[in-house]
Design goal:
This protein is an alpha+beta fold and about 290 residues long. It has two domains: about 170 residues, no CATH class; about 110 residues, Hypothetical Protein Tm841, Chain: A,domain 3. Helices cover about 30% and strands about 20% of the residues. The chain contains eight helices and twelve strands. Strands 5-4-3-8-6-7 form a six-stranded mixed β-sheet, with helices on both faces. A hairpin with a 3-residue loop joins strand 4 and strand 5. The protein is globular, with a radius of gyration of 19 Å. About 40% of the residues are buried.
Amino acid sequence: MTSADLVLPPTDQQTPPAALLRAPGDQGLDTALSDMQLLLDQHGYVIAVYPAGIAPAHERRLHTIRSVLESDRIALLKVDLPPLGVAVLVRQLRQLSVCDFSAGVVASAARLLSHYIHAGALLNSVTRLDRVPVGLKAHAKSWMPGTQFGVLANPSPQLIRIGQGELTGPEFATHLIVAKGQLQSDWVTSTVAPAWQVQAVHEVAPLSDSPGWWGTSKMIEFAAFLPDISVIYQLVSSVRREVCTWCGNELIGDRCGLCSAPLKPPENQSNGSGVLNQGTPMGHGS
């Protein structure tokens, strides 16, 4: 991980910790290379997950390390999810890493699992929100005192004015994780959680990158996710595995998680998603 607060507490004793890949301003290149080599020596592979909004210099550092070490054993996964969604995905990949999947399958599972994370926020303003489409009417209403908005960024964008409509949630069993910023409201726990029929609600500290992502510090971030590693395992197992023609590692979906090469030939591509019903995989069609 590229930020310590994106590492959520483990859900069980088997979930391994995550290593922090520091920014250039916090660590010299030689030290970063030594740390990465140590991780490779200890674990064989490194799956580096970082948010799409990371500082360009930090992203360049990751690619420089991979290039210098000339290693297809380093996966660089750029994830376009809100911060709390990234943190949830990282924890799920940590859970998968101790299962009997190869590193290539774990790395390429990130794209699959992202589809099952419903990440959103309650905001007091959308005037600076540029990650989700916002209409002119919503922009105008955000200047009105007391107006609040419910926003879903993933898996598909949604925006409602509180009191006028509901956010469409998952159609399978989930837990809800909540990070309260500088906004006082029980809307997420009293309205979203019951409407989505979540099985449990967990609270964590606010994430440092969240105000920048959502355009305001007056917000409450939340994410619904698959909590059961056995369900996640079944979901990943249900997708046909392929062998990357470039690096030779296993993958699921249409792109190698380790070297990013697309799956060839196209006619052999498998669908990269599954369908869940009450937490139980029913297939893997899109």
